[in-house]
Amino acid sequence: MSDNLTKSQRSYCMSNIRSKWTTQESKIHNYLKGNKIKHKMHPNITGSPDILLTKNKTVIFLHGCFWHRCPKCFKEPKTRMEYWIPKIENNVKRDKRNERNLKKEGYKVLKLWEHEIKKNLKKCVKKIEKYK
After folding, report:
1. Would 79 be classed as within a structural domain?
2. Among 26, 88, 107, 117, who pairs with 102 as Cys (CB 3.0-4.6 Å)?
3. Which residues of 36-71 are buried (b: 16+ CB within 10 A; e: fewer)?
4. pLDDT tens, residue by residue, 101-122
5. CA 56 – CA 52 distance, rounded (Å)
6. Is 103:109 a contact under the CB 8 Å cutoff?
7. Range 4-32 burial, b when 16+ CB lie within 10 A, else e
8. Domain-embedded: residue 73
9. Domain count of the chain?
10. What's the pLDDT tens digit per position in 19-61?
11. Could you give the CA distance from residue 117 to residue 112 in angstroms, rounded to a whole number?
């Protein structure tokens, strides 16, 4: 199946997909800031986590369901599977490697999925509060 967008339209759509300051990151950041929980967004440490809770060496990854193959709601792409499947598999492998390396360095690792934050932000906040 061919792409139904022109090359310039597809380029525009893809350029709007951000790796930093996504809606989910903003929501979690606003909660942490509002509750005076010390944190760093996008810290420059091993594995490039989204958030670092500085008080107790906890890192938080906010994973997009498509990009990181959510076990609950991932749907395989219908087009260009030869491109997307290896790309997503590499993301998952990198996630596991990053988590393992961070744990070796003494960090606690928390993963939150995009659908969890969208569906029930309060539940995600409770998970974070266990680590603060």
Report:
1. yes
2. 107
3. ebebebeeeeebebbbbbeeeebbbbbbbbbbbbbe
4. 999 999 999 999 999 999 998 8
5. 9
6. yes
7. eeeeeeeeeeeeeeeeeebebbebbbebb
8. yes
9. 1
10. 676 778 888 889 888 888 899 999 999 889 999 998 889 999 9
11. 7
The CATH number of residue 95's host domain is 3.40.960.10
Structure tokens given for 128: 């974070």
| Residue 110: domain span | 20-131
| Strand intervals (E) in the chain | 39-41, 51-53, 58-63, 108-113
Q: Identify whether 99 is part of a domain.
A: yes
- Whether the CB-CB separation of 113 and 72 falls below 8 Å is answered with yes
| Residue at 14: amino acid letter | M
Q: Please tell me whether residue 58 adopts helix, strand or coil conformation.
A: strand
CA distance 68 to 93: 9
Angle, CA 95 vertex, CA 55 and CA 89 arms, to 5°:
165
Question: Structure pTM?
Answer: 0.83
